[in-house]
Design goal:
The complex is a heterotrimer. Chain A contains 12 helices and 10 strands. By secondary structure, chain A is of the alpha/beta class. The mean pLDDT of chain A is about 90. By secondary structure, chain B is mainly α. Chain B folds into 2 domains: about 170 residues, no CATH class; about 70 residues, no CATH class. The longest helix of chain B has 30 residues. By secondary structure, chain C is an alpha/beta fold. Chain C folds into 3 domains: about 160 residues, Rossmann fold, CATH 3.40.50.300; about 60 residues, no CATH class; about 35 residues, no CATH class. In chain C, strands 6-7-8-3-9-10 form a 6-stranded mixed sheet. Chain C has a 4-stranded antiparallel sheet with strand order 2-1-4-5, with no helix packed on it. In chain C, about 50% of the residues are buried. The chains are: A alpha/beta, B mainly alpha, C alpha/beta. Chains in contact: A-B, A-C, B-C. Chains A and C meet through helix 7, helix 11 and helix 12 of A and helix 6, helix 10 and helix 11 of C.
Amino acid sequence: MAVVEAKGLTYAYPGRTEASLQDVSLTVEEGEFALLTGPSGCGKTTLCRCFNGLIPHFYGGKLEGDLVVAGLSVADRPIRDLAQHVGLVFQNPENQLFALSVEKDVAFGLENLGVARGEIRKRVDWALEMTGIGDLRERTPHELSGGQQQRVAIASVLAMHPKVMVLDEPTSFLDPLGAQTIFSVIDGLNRRLGITVILVEHRLDLASQYADHVIVMDEGRVVLDGGPREIFSSEEARLIGVGIPKATMLYRFLEEQGIHSGTVPVNSKEASQLLREALVLDRG
Amino acid sequence: MSVFEGFRFRGVSSPVHRLDPRVKFLYVFVVFAVAIMFGELLPLLVLFFVPVPFVFLAGVQRQWLRSMRGASLFAIIIFATNFIFTYLSPGSIPGIEPPLDTASEYFLLLERSLAMTLRFIVLVESFSIFFLTTSPDRLSLALEQSRVPYELCFAFTTAVRFVPVLAEEAQTIMDAQRARGLELERGNFMKRVRNYIPILIPLIVNAIRRSLELAEAMESRAWGATEKRTNLYVLRMRRPDYGLIFASLFMLTFALYVRFSFPMPSIVALLSL
Amino acid sequence: MIEVREVSFAYPNGVEALKGVSLAIQKGEFVAIMGQNGAGKTTLVKLFNGLLKPTTGEVLVDGVDTRKVSVANLAQKVGFVFQNPDHQLFCETVEEEVAFALRNFGLGKRTVQKRVKWALNLLDLEKYRQVSPFMLSGGERKRVALASVLAWDPEVIILDEPTIGQDYRQKERLQQFIVQMNAQGKTVVVVTHDIEFVAECTPRVMLMAQGNIIAEGDARKILTDQKLVTKASIVLPQVTQVFLGLMDLGLPGDVVNVQDARRALSDFLGVDS
């Protein structure tokens, strides 16, 4: 069942002549972990803003084409309706936390929706547990590390029980360990709770191993759409200039030497395995 | 900055911290009313010393003293003004008739000016205790439950939340510009003011950008979805709160009674100076 | 060029950011200071241009003690490009922005014009000369900030987390640019937690953890040491992780990037790489 369906999306920010999205069509199935990537300025951030209605309702302008998310037509429903089904986590951890304590931040969305206090308490506790930050509940956002802040942001979105979680470069400001933690938290939510994930990332080395579906954009268009292994090992991906995972680059090296092996690796373990088989074979 | 330290909330807890802010505010209001009622030194001294044990109970004595120190400049100005005006205007205060020829008249003048000064100090004292023992989120909660529109409460909390962030950012901007040769300490007054433009513009531009990002995040969490906003926390009055309400009202009533029943003697008279 | 002797630094709020750090950076070196967020990297490099002065110990830049000269003075030798260009940009045009520091340093009009032209060309910004920096994209603003620092041609260039938010192509260009600057004799210091970027450039690495330098040396030596990497709370480069599992086959253990890997594999397979 498709939980996100876009057909021919075209959009230009008000006041700009160039369209940031040009005839974008894609489908994301329920429960998928989709990775959205592409060079800077390709339109991935713009597309994220469409999923929960910030475009067109917050930014203005006209969103041409069709976009249906969780059964709702984005152009026809206000953000506050869409926000109950699609959560959006932003790049800068500091600017999406408003309250003076972590708990209150996680409760924010539920308070806005007028959920009863008992239910808010239950969901806040649950969301904090799911993201592993239960012990931070009374802390002020400012004293937390970037990685902890992002987990609070994820928890606040999670508390609203969304069907889809969209994350726009959530690890930009984090160090590698912090980034790894975020990816494993997101992966956990995807696998254990069945939440559909749309992750925008540049750091494909760390993120590609979790994705079932990869979408590559360039200059406002979708140029590649498919499974991670086929996309990252393709020539087009290399030409567009996305940061192909190093593991996949090693696979290409073997191909160049005429060594054709099994599946395309997307993480270091798989690459190690692949190389071992190839080299032992060659030796033997 | 140190005078502001006398008002900034500390993250500790004490029975005073746990009191409902609305009740504490009632106390401050009563103090205000009583201070206005009396122009004599004696009752104002009482008013000053009554909350002192609570300052110690709350453990905020050092910051409180700092706020007192900050107020001292103003206090001196008030004292001097009062002293001079009363000296120069005949018959404004009973017992003081210029030309002042008796010692007791001088003492009365002194006492009177001290009283006016103390009135100001008592107000600073109670506001300081209020802010030192009330966390911003409890304060915001109190505002919400007092039917202040949520947008205002939210604006208040968000502002408090971002104060340390903005302070850090200001420091970073200053560092970045100093690293480009900007010298903030040199030059005459006009030059120094102009030197702050490279600090202010990035600060303001970034604040605007930040507000935009915040607005996006708020919308994404269903801001404005319903008029009937609920809350994770609720302020409930407990026994100590009722105790303070009672004490405040008692103080008000007693003060009114004293004011309208018998004249307040001056300390000078009491000591027969 | 830069010498740090037993320096400790504590912030006014008491946090000890550096504990007895010593290092020496020679003229023309390319050094990466690495570690997780909070290890003290940015604090350390702020000592190099005098923005921070050591609490104990001394920092010498080209033989001069940083405590004896102003930041503006040191800045002429040590250029610092901050992480967020929006903390610097405030002028009406890109031209003004690039000229800002030059004017602060008191350079003559003709020199300023010459240097601005040079810097704009170097970073391919001539077409934006009269454009407001606020109208440019994130990547372009980063280039303007870099141009405004390079304009005065400092001997040392410090880049604080230059790869944040950059895509693959932008990082490639940055790498080429750094190599070029270094080849021209500039001392380049990059503060970063981006392992892959350092693995590509392979500079001399100083690894920090909790206010100390726990290791320093060649990138290939440090980034392949699992124990050090764990101690500093960073991760091994992807390629290193791949080759870790292959050491028993006789493959080298100091492979950090794809180029190294290709060479090692080619050697192993007995083909030309």
